Structure formats: structure tokens, C-alpha cells
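Sample intake — LPXTG cell wall anchor domain-containing protein
Collected from: Bifidobacterium longum subsp. infantis
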Amino acid sequence: MNSYLRLLTLGLSLFGVDVMMIGGAVVVFLAVAVAILIITRRRRTI
């Protein structure tokens, strides 16, 4: 049972890391998209 719990916790930790990496990538992508939109709008207004 102890080994099963260790495998379960290890799987959850790896899954959590993957989720954090995916979430971070999505946040960075959204931030870059917003920055590009702001720059294009500023260039168009200027």
C-alpha cells in the first residue's frame, strides 16, 4: 500500500507540474497577444 501511495503521489506531482507548465505557457501566450494588439493599435492611431 505504501508503494501504491508513493506512485500515486508521484503521478499527481508530475501531472501538477505539467498543468503548471501548460498554464504558464497559456498565460505567456495571452500576454504576448495582448502586447501585440496594443502595439498595433498604437501604430495605427499614430
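Post-analysis note: The radius of gyration is 20 Å.
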